[in-house]
Amino acid sequence: MKIKKKKLLAVVVATFMIFSSAIFASAAAKTLKYGHANAPIYFYHTAGVAFGEKVEELTNGALKVKVYPYGQLGGERDITEGLQLGTVDLQATSIGVTGTFIPALRILNLPFLFKGPKHWMKVMDSNVGQLILQKCREQGEKVGLKVLAIAAPDFRLPMNNVRPIKTLEDFEGLKIRTMEVPLHVKAYQYLGANPTPLPFGELYTALQTGVVDGNENGPLTLYGMKFHEVQKYLTLLPVVSNAGILLMSKKTWEKLPEDQQLAITKSISIWRKKMRQDALEKGGWAIKKMQEETGLIVNGVEDLEPFVKATEPVYDWLYGDLPEDTAEWAREMVGKIRKIGETVKEEEWYGISL
Fold this sequence. Notes:
This protein is an alpha/beta fold. It is built from 14 helices and 12 strands. The strands form 2 sheets. Strands 5, 6, 7, 8, 9, 10 and 12 form a 7-stranded mixed sheet that branches. It has a 5-stranded mixed sheet with strand order 2-1-3-11-4. It is globular and about 60 Å long.
């Protein structure tokens, strides 16, 4: 009888310890807030989910990542400022907006710096890409931002309802809605278009009513916002990169133990891989869906040189607008990027056959 009681007591104690451990582990788990301003179909979101799953796996559930889409934590700038304050932990965002916080990143907003996705990947996978990332990390640290990665060989493609863009002259007079990023605005001005500032939420109606003739964005956004319903032409033209950047609050990072910092570092490659995969595969899927649904006309451009020459003044403007040390560095990086471009003889656009 005494033996049975001892066994029962041992079972009760063991069960209590397991139950207590589970409660402790649950209570000890920390959840990081990852914000972005796009829909869940977008690669900021899918990459964030994959990144979070890896972080949780590597920390045995002690560290989790919750992804907030649709600007639930604010607009892109709002979320970045939240990182600086420590009220948001992680963010996937555009290089356009982040360039206002990290000057070195602005070179990736230069028009026709890349020939297309293949050129972009070749640069970012090289030592040149590492130099860019390192410079951005150094500058990010100074403003409370940890730059974890830059990814997605995506481009903001021009779309309009007037005519297909095959030559530089085809841009003449087109009212194109752009982001309020100076380099983007200036690029379209020098192309001969009329860049028009407009809240993104009003864009569909503006396109539908002819307030603007067109807009520019990545394929997933163009499809997700149904702009193909009110636009006829899409051009595979690498005006500006639509890559994304993964940021983390420096305040959050410094509060984490070393093992959790290491788990985040090890998970960065997962984020980069998913960003690249979805930018290419889902980007191509989105273009095909737009073609199927509305007969959207998609074309490429054989000769980029006229577009490159027309936008050269944008480069000089940027060099003059950057801090002196960053300006010289930017000139050097641009030269290296274009050198790599010479080895890319033919581009590949989202697997699209024209």
